[in-house]
Amino acid sequence: MSQQVVTRFAPSPTGYLHIGGARTALFNWLFARGRGGKFLLRIEDTDRARSTPEATQAILDGLAWLGLDHDDEAISQFERADRHAEVARKLLAEGMAYKCFATQDEIETFREAARAEGRSTLYQSPWRDATPDQHPTDMPHVIRIKAPRDGVTVIRDEVQGDVTIRNDQLDDMVLLRGDGTPVYMLAVAVDDHDMGVTHVIRGDDHLNNAARQMMIYQAMGWPLPVYAHIPLIHGPDGKKLSKRHGALGVEEYQKMGYPAAGIRNYLARLGWSHGDAEFFDDAQAQAWFDLKGIGKSPARLDFKKLENLCGQHIAAADDAALLHELQGFLAATGQPALDDTKLTLFSRGMYCLKERAKTFPELLDKAAFILATRPIQPEEKVAEQLDTVSRGILKELTPQLQTATWTREDIEGLATQFAEDHGMKFGKLAGPLRAALAGRSATPSVFDMMLVLGRDETIARLTDAACGGD
């Protein structure tokens, strides 16, 4: 039986969940979920000065909002320091690592001499082949791995192809510092092995780290994972993504009102493709996602494309799920939640609110007629629609609507007939109706608004407007 796929996302909790990190998490999630595998989360919190519980929470919140659920408990790298040190000591005991007593001054002197002579500045410790009886007593030391000196290390990468590094470019990396704490490279390799990670899918800024982490795998006799180093995301100008390009943190995208499904779809397409497919759902993405579809060059962030996809996802979304996410958006942006009455109206009106809304603010803008309370205060330009003649027309129309069957066909038929009887086109009647029902000019159709608001509220608003100047 083939081995179960296990992927991992391993962020450092020193800030928010970056949009690039979110895409890395998504690729790992899609790859595991599409193969019935496991997607694990490891918090790389060994940098105690910069790691904060708030940043850890921001990462968890970002993943939860994106809908990227992980299996098992999240692992803290810091809490596994004893295990990392145990591996370093095992390598020491087996002659794969050694104690190095060189001081910082000695290392710097070596490097200065190497620079002056035009040699490699990679430190070559005189303690590499020293025997225990040659070791000084009670002197601080680090533990270094014995890097291979000859030949090459080949990183077989599913995205970058075979990457060859000459072994004389690899130094005898420190595994345990002088105070006995493990270094990052050791922690990552040990954790990936212990967690059973089969595929390491991460940013290509980690490509050189792979060669160093492979030294630990090989020294321990562990099977190597499959590597896939994905290109970073660039801004629209082709430069590395930074604050000048706008939103970097996932929570900012939530606050801008993009639906999570749209973000997932967009991020999946950012550097990966499946034929010509642009718009797809999670099930399709999980079924299609593979490492071969990842491009080698950096992907560019394109907000127009993102908005377009988000609009398609809002239009295709299940109404109840969309309402739930809308409530989440209101909470994230510090706006009051929709009460039960408004929720009912939103549910009723979702069919006409979803059309052409690319974000939740646009959806709320279309729903302004639902959110408005009587008496409606029309915008200045719209108020001009409610002149004496228009108010007279509304006064005459309102009683007829009171007796109408409240279906679109009947309301539309009645209003069209009313306009005809008064020798006008329906468009002439639509302006005052819009002003009375919403107080603004950009709205869904007046018939949609009437159906959503219901007979009583519609009649009340029309009556208010008709009597407005009395």
Automatic annotation (TrEMBL):
Record CDD domains: GluRS_core
Residues reported in the UniProt entry to bind ATP: 243
Family annotation (InterPro entries): aa-tRNA-synth_I_cd-bd, aa-tRNA-synth_I_codon-bd_sub2, aa-tRNA-synth_I_CS, aa_tRNA-synth_I_cd-bd_sf, Glu-tRNA-ligase_bac/mito, Glu/Gln-tRNA-synth, Glu/Gln-tRNA-synth_Ib_cat-dom, GluQ/Sye
Keywords: Aminoacyl-tRNA synthetase, ATP-binding, Cytoplasm, Ligase, Nucleotide-binding, Protein biosynthesis
Pfam families registered for this protein in UniProt: Anticodon_2, tRNA-synt_1c
Motif ('HIGH' region): 11-21
Recorded catalytic activity of this chain's protein: tRNA(Glu) + L-glutamate + ATP = L-glutamyl-tRNA(Glu) + AMP + diphosphate
SUPFAM superfamilies: An anticodon-binding domain of class I aminoacyl-tRNA synthetases, Nucleotidylyl transferase
Enzyme Commission designation: 6.1.1.17
Main localisation: cytoplasm
Domain Aminoacyl-tRNA synthetase class I anticodon-binding span(s) in chain numbering: 341-465
Location within or outside the cell: Cytoplasm
Domain Glutamyl/glutaminyl-tRNA synthetase class Ib catalytic: 4-307
Protein biosynthesis found in the keyword field: yes
Family: Belongs to the class-I aminoacyl-tRNA synthetase family. Glutamate--tRNA ligase type 1 subfamily.
Function: Catalyzes the attachment of glutamate to tRNA(Glu) in a two-step reaction: glutamate is first activated by ATP to form Glu-AMP and then transferred to the acceptor end of tRNA(Glu).
This protein's name: Glutamate--tRNA ligase
Native source species: Roseovarius mucosus
Name of the coding gene: gltX
